[in-house]
Amino acid sequence: MAVKLGKYGIWRGAGGLTPELAVEVEKLGYGAIWIGGSPPADLELAESLLDATQSIAVATGIVNMWATDAATVGAAYHRVVAKHPDRFLLGVGVGHPEATADYQKPYDKIVSYLDELDEAGVPRDGLVLAALGPKVLKLSAERAAGAHPYLTTPEHTRQARELLGADVLLAPEHKVVLESDPARAREIARPPINMPYLNLRNYANNLRRLGWDDSEITDGGSDRLIDALGLHGDAQTIARGLNAHLEAGADHVCLHNLPDDADPLPTYRALAAALF
Questions:
Q1: Quick one: residue 167, left, alpha or beta (phi over 0 = left, psi -120 to 50 = alpha)?
Q2: What are the residue ranges spanned by the domains of the chain?
Q3: What is the DSSP string of 157-221?
Q4: Is 153 exposed, middle or buried (0-12, 13-18, 19+ CB in 10 A)?
Q5: What InterPro entries would the database entry show (predicted)?
Q6: 248 φ, ψ to 5°?
Q7: CA 175/CA 177 separation, integer angstroms
Q8: Which one, of 185, 187, 150, lies nearest residue 170 by Cα?
Q9: pLDDT tens per residue across all 276 residues of the chain
Q10: Distance CA 35, CA 243 (A)
């Protein structure tokens, strides 16, 4: 794959990303900025972040297949990579059924959308799929550069690597809370993990595949589950948790700072010192 992500990147919702923040993230040594949520098809935010920086990669995590036309995304992809070669990675996915009234046969939608991206000339090594379950993980190895799983654990990463095989990109997201008080950290992590993700069947089913039972997934999630999905502690503790993904077979890990509305730079700085 031509795009170099490094070992660690940051994941942040589109509304919280600015060119100024991108410059600071690059200075800290992170290899990639993942634009979270469902960024629009024009990819203008990705282009602005690339314009402001020198070498850091930018990826979408993810463009929603139900909301964005593949031909439009394909044209925007070519515009961005012509200006910034080897620095942009297009992440696409079907999201979750509760958010889309037309959500039918998601696997068929992924295949048809990938066919359309092929027709638009988007190279497979410039593309990653949002993937959790075995079927889509395997598809990400066959039709894209690899997979970008969301709301996962190192155990999922280990299983995903076994399914993907070698030489396929695996870039999971993991939420972090720079807080050493467990009770306070859970107060921060539980709301955005529980709502919506623990109430969405694709994420809940993925957790069940990993061995979590319903008693730990329902009613806001058990403390043990929240601790697993939202790493907390000091910078060194969180760094060890993120590094566990690399030990399990990930190529790149994107950290998602919580709470989403807080200034992320203190966490990015502290973790950069621990990770690099």
A1: left
A2: 8-275
A3: HHHHHHHH-TTSEE--EEEEEEBS-HHHHHHHHHHHHHTTGGGSHHHHHHHHHTT--HHHHSTT-
A4: buried
A5: Bact_Lucif_Oxidored, Lucif-like_OxRdatse_MSMEG_4141, Luciferase-like_sf
A6: -85, -5
A7: 7
A8: 150
A9: 789 999 999 999 999 999 999 999 999 999 999 999 889 999 999 999 999 999 999 999 999 999 899 999 999 999 999 999 999 999 999 975 544 555 568 899 999 999 999 999 999 999 999 999 999 999 999 999 999 999 999 999 999 999 999 999 999 999 999 999 999 999 999 999 999 999 999 999 999 999 999 999 999 999 999 999 999 999 999 999 999 999 999 999 999 999 999 999 999 999 999 999
A10: 22
3 state SS of 46: helix
Output the six-digit token pair for 189: 């992590």
Record the tokens describing residue 72, joined without a space: 């439009």
Token pair recorded at residue 227 = 């601790």
Cβ atoms within 10 Å of 68's Cβ, excluding its own: 21
Q: What is the DSSP letter of 143?
A: H
> Can you give the pTM of this predicted structure?
0.96
Name the CATH superfamily housing domain 8-275.
Answer: Luciferase-like domain (3.20.20.30)
- C-alpha dihedral sign at 146, 62, 31, 83: positive
CA 56 to chain centre: 16
Amino acid residing at 18: T
